[in-house]
Structures are given as C-alpha cells and as structure tokens.
Amino acid sequence: MSGSRVDLKVVLLGKEYGGKTSLVERYLHDRFHGDVPYQNTIGAAFGAKKIEVDSRTVTMGIWDTAGSERYEAMSRIYYRGAKAAIVCYDLTDGTSFDRAKFWVEELKRNEEFCKIYLSGNKFDLVENDKSRRQVDYHSVTDYAEELKAEVFETSSKTGHQIKELFFKIAQDYVKEPRNNDAAPEVPKTLNLTDKPKKADCAC
Amino acid sequence: MADSPGRPDGTDDEDQDVLIGEEPGASVHPMLATEDSYEELDYDLNIEAPITEQRERLASGTIASIVEEHTGPASAEEVGTEATELENDVERSSLEGDLSNLQISEEVTQRRADTVPDRQDVPNDTDEEVLQNREAGQREIKDEDIHSSVWRDHKKHVFILSEAGKPIYSRYGNEDKLVSLMGVMQALISFVQDGKNNLRSIVAGGRTFVFLVRPPLILVAVCRTHESQQQLLLQLTYVYNQVLSVLTYSQLSRVLETRKNYDLRRLLGGTEKFLDNLLNLIDQDPSFLLTAVRCLPLDSTVRDTIGHSIQSAKIKDLVFAILIADNQLVTLCRMKKYILHPADLHLVFNLLNASTSFQAADSWIPICLPKFDSAGFLHAHISYLDNSKACLLLLTVDKMMFFELAKCKEKIVEKLKKHHCIEAINRAVAGGGYRCLEVGISDLRHFIYKSKSTAQFTAPELEAPYREKEERARLFNMYQYVHQRVHNAARPLKIMFHVGSREAMLGWVTTGFELYAVFGPLATKQVAILAVNKLLKWIKKEEYRLFILDPPEF
C-alpha cells in the first residue's frame, strides 16, 4: 500500500486480543475472518485508505499496533505525530479497559494534538448476551467526557459502527482549523512526479 | 543392513574428480556465512568453553557500527539509549510481576494441586482466564493431559526453562502443569554442575534426553527418534535462537539476571506458535539439518533482473533485502560488508511460515538475528508483492524508516512488474520445483546436494514412493541417519553406502559439498557411485538455475 502521501495518521492502541486488527481489516477490506484462529500482531501493520468528507479527499494512514507488552516501548514510534488514536478495549474483558486508560494517559502526556476515540470492540458478543458485558457504557462515556474523547461500540463481525467511527475521525480532521492550515500544496506537486497512478495493491 | 565406511581407495578417486572450487554450486561471492554450525557446535561442547566464550559466538555491536558509520557516533549512542529504554520498561513490569508473586506465594502450593492451571505471576484472575481460553483455542495441544500415554509417547518433546527452573515453554501440553518435571530437569543440571561438570545427555527408557545450557536459559529435548545427540543439540540451538529473535540476548539476560524469578512467558506471550512451527519445520525440512538455504529454481536471467531491480532501489541504512517465495530464497541483496548466517535466515523463513497475518497488510516489525547481532533489533518491512507468493523483507537499523522502505518497495515492485518477474516467480512456485527425472538417472529416487562454499542446497520435489506423509517422514529420518553417520565426531566418514529394505542411500562429504542420494533397494555401491558422478555433472550444468552464485550487493 502506498506510503507516499498520508494526510491523516491514525493509530490503534489497546490490549492484545482486543480486536484492533479485525477492526482495521473490516474497515480496509470489509471482511471478517471468524473461522481463522487468533493471530497476534507482531510489531505493527500499516494500511491506507482514501475517504471523502465534505467534498474533500483525505488519505488516512492507519497503524495497527501489537497489543503485546513486549512491544509497548516501540508503540511510541507509531503514535508519534498521529492526528487520531483509536484506543480499543474488549467489551467482554474488564481489564482491557484499564489498559485503554493506560494508553490514554500515555497519549495525553506525549501527543497533545492527537484526538482520542475510544472503541469498545466485539459488540456483537454483548448485544445478545448482556451478561457478557464487562465494561459499562455509561462509565466509559463519563470517562470520555473528561477527555473530550468520542466513544464507539463496534463489531468487526457485523460491521456495526465501524464506518461511522472512521468517518467521524476524518470529519474531525477536516473541521480542525490547524489541519487545514497545515495542509500545504507542496505534496501535491510532488505527486505529479509519481508515475501514472497504478492501482493500489490490496494489502 | 550393510553399510561400509568410506574406503580410502574409493573415496580418494572421487575426491579427485571434483576440484575444490569447481564443485557444483561453488562461488567465491558468498552471501551467507559458511562456517558449519554443526561442527561449531561440536567445538562448543567438546572444549570446556567458559560461558563468556560461548557468548562470543553471538555477534554483538554490528547494528551500532552500521548506525555509526552512516550518521556518526552520536546517534549510535542514541540507539543504545533507546535499547535501554525498552529494557527499563521491561524491568518495571518485571517488578510488578514480582510483587504479585510475593502476594500469591503462600497460595502457590494449594494452587498447583488445582485442576485449573494458574499463571502465578499474572495479578488478575479474569485476565488469566481470557488468556487461558484464548491459548487453548489457539494451541489445542496445550490441552493435552500430561499424565496420558499420548503425551508421553510424543516423538520429540522440547522444553525451555529458566535457570531458576521456571517453565517457559513446552512443545506439548501446558507448561504450567510441568512445574515439577522442569524442577527435576533443573535439579539434574545443577547437581552435575556442582561437580564442575556439564550434563549433556542421558539415554534411558528408549529415549534420549539432551540438555543445552545457554544461560540464562535451559533447553531440553526428549526423543524417541534416532537422531544423534549432536543433531538434537543443533535443533535446541535453533530454538534458543528463536527466543533471542523475539527478545534479543541483551534483554533476555538483563531481565533474568536482575529477576531470577521472572516469568519469561510475559515477554514471550504470543510467540509460542513460532516455536511450535519451528519445531515442526525442523522435523521435515533439511535446511535445518544442513544449516543451508534452499533457493527457488529460477532462470538465471530472471534472477539477475530481480537482483538489479532490488539493487537500484537502494537507500541508506538498508542492510538486507530478502525476497522469499514458498519457503525458498529468490534473492538476497546485502550491504557489501555484511553477510547473513543461514541460521538467521531460517528464523526469517520461520517467521513468514508461521504467520498468515503478513499477507493482509504491510508490516513493520522488530526482529533480532542473533548471528548478525544478538544485542539489538533490526527492523523489517514485510510485504507480499502484488498479492503474489513472493514476500519481500527489507531490513534496516533505523526504526523510523517505514515510509522510506515502503517507497523503496514500490520502486522494486514497479521494476519487477515491468520485467514480468513476479509472474516468473509465481510460475516457478506453482511448478513445484524440478523433478528427479530431469537428471536422467533411472534408479535415482531423490537427492539433497549442499554446496558448502555458499551454504545453499538443492533437492528435487518428492515423488513416488515418497508422496505419503509417513513415507516422507521415513525418508527424512533416513537422511538424518546418513547425515549423523557421516558427521559422527568420533568416527567421521567421507562416503557411506547404506542398503535398507526399501531403499539404498549414498552419503558423500568432501571439503566442497555434501551429497545424499536415494536409490532403489537393489542398487549396488558401484552403480550408486557412477550415478552420483553423473548427478554432479548435471547439477554443475544447472548450477545457475539452482543456486545463487552471483548475489547482488548494495
């Protein structure tokens, strides 16, 4: 996938097995591998997607990071300069929300201009069986209010709220005056030197 | 069984047939380190090498020197501090782990008796359950009852424990349930160490127990197979390297030296599948046995074009560019000064082999190649080219270079597409290698040929009668047997002819190559020797297709 010009850097953070990779997979390729056994992400994976907001095309570069403790120190290089962070937690796992709080603190300390989006994943699991829910919606929204963060409860299995989440991120990005000033025309001229646009490889 | 050790008259003749440097697949431009790990290992074990010397076997400082060369000493220091940053983090978490350990320590005995295994270091119970459930789904073998005969009868068990006797990994069954067994292993080792000796192996109950102590880790293999102690030690060394590739030696030793009691699984979590996969590969792939790399047979002009395409995309700090398809090497482009060790390349193959997630998106991962530099990480940009079978790895020392490398990859893909190289690779992979029939020797069923000067090997695809899984496994065991006989440290052989009930095998080792060939059971030694001479001529004729003899450099 082209790494050449990204307007909006988005990073996914959160505890391992929290559904970050599935979320990206659903958004970028609109698919969900329910039958494939869990594969932990190693290091990080990058994907890009163009999105149209208010008649403007924004190229989103999405970093899907590994949740494993081992890579914690490396995560800094992925959220550096990110305009948006999707901090994920697993709705069926209470501890994953503690982990999410850790990431929120980390972001607040290091990336002042990074907007935070809290995403409670695996919504399909709690939708029909309320007893499986381990993270209360209202306590999350209360927490988010303090942070001025957005909350989404998503399901990569059904696609619930995922497009909405990314659209909101793009919309906030476009609305933010700082981003509009900081979008110089220079890269566009650079683009001309890039050979005729070839189809993006589906990655 | 009638095997005859190499007779001086016979072998001398053969040796003169092929001059050193003229043997098939020989090259004066090696891209891989050629020191024979098998013999190196032997050296390690025969001489009572002090630990410090053993450590020197692991390279260190290469990455720092590359950084220094390109940007001056200041940033090399920076890399150093970054590495420590990581370690500090680990220490912090290890401290947390230890605290919870203290709290729980009273319950430990009681817990062990429980049927549900607990991770004693993980503070939170729900956390544990989730982990457990997931792992159970992931590795069914984890569920195995360690008291069952099924568990006992596995052909090869591999265990990793810390020097303090803490379980880290078990190939079968849940290592949590093996606490006492690992305790015994640790006790055996320290008992012998007490007498200023090293425990290397035990043969008992139809099994071979092999121990490899690589402080701060202990690795143990327990086998019902006929592999030699040396072969098993080599395999344990690969397993050890796999652990290092995830953690680096500096991090591993730092963590376990400061906290002897640390549960290393916290850091290794999620990488069991790489160890599982590695052990499965070791049981079927001759590259590990031979410490050599298999190349994808490819027309030399195509391979050259691919090499040039990669070369032309060169950017600063790109140390290695590796193109792999179907577990075989297509090409390897390297910084002039640095060569890669086959054992490191095996880790890369294992990484791709064990995970399908790289196919989905471009990945950026830290990986330690212990023979290259055990002290730090290289950073790898991994991508499958254009949805093909070909996977490109770009390795650098700079962790901020993802986008530069992404551009570099695009350039390479563009060039490869222009010259239709990706199709050529796909065709070569779909074709499944070459057939033994091509050689034109009627009784020859299969062979493995390793060129020592390039650390590469070639073998035709397996055909009848080796189509079935069991037969393949049996053939591989035969290869292992001949290999261990010719490499026997006490009584090495140059040439060996072994007639079994179902096939005859010839093993032949010279300074330049190793050759193992399989014939029908009625083949005589004379027929076999004539045949392998013809075979060598054929390999020589095809060497540019089968081997990488002119590797590109940056």
TrEMBL record, chain A:
GO terms for cellular component: autophagosome membrane; cytoplasmic vesicle; cytosol; perinuclear region of cytoplasm; spindle. It is found in: Cytoplasm, Cytoskeleton, Spindle; Cytoplasm, Cytosol; Cytoplasm, Perinuclear region; Cytoplasmic vesicle, Autophagosome membrane. The keyword Kinase does not apply. Its cofactor is Mg(2+). InterPro entries: P-loop_NTPase, Small_GTP-bd, Small_GTPase. It comes from the Eukaryota. Its EC number is 3.6.5.2. Its main location: cytoplasm. It is a lipid-anchor. One of its GO terms (biological process) is autophagy. The keyword Oxidoreductase does not apply. PANTHER family: PTHR47978. Interacts with ZFYVE20. Does not interact with the GDP dissociation inhibitors ARHGDIA and ARHGDIB. This is Ras-related protein Rab-24.
UniProtKB/TrEMBL annotation, chain B:
Transmembrane segments: none annotated. One of its GO terms (cellular component) is Mon1-Ccz1 complex. One of its GO terms (biological process) is vesicle-mediated transport. It holds the Pfam family Fuz_longin_3. Residues 316-414 form the FUZ/MON1/HPS1 second Longin domain. Residues 1-31, 62-102 are annotated as: Disordered. Residues 156-278 form the FUZ/MON1/HPS1 first Longin domain. InterPro entries: FUZ/MON1/HPS1_longin_1, FUZ/MON1/HPS1_longin_2, FUZ/MON1/HPS1_longin_3, Mon1. Residues 443-543 form the FUZ/MON1/HPS1 third Longin domain. PANTHER family: SAND PROTEIN-RELATED, VACUOLAR FUSION PROTEIN MON1 HOMOLOG. Belongs to the MON1/SAND family. Plays an important role in membrane trafficking through the secretory apparatus. This is Vacuolar fusion protein MON1 homolog. It comes from Patiria miniata (Bat star).
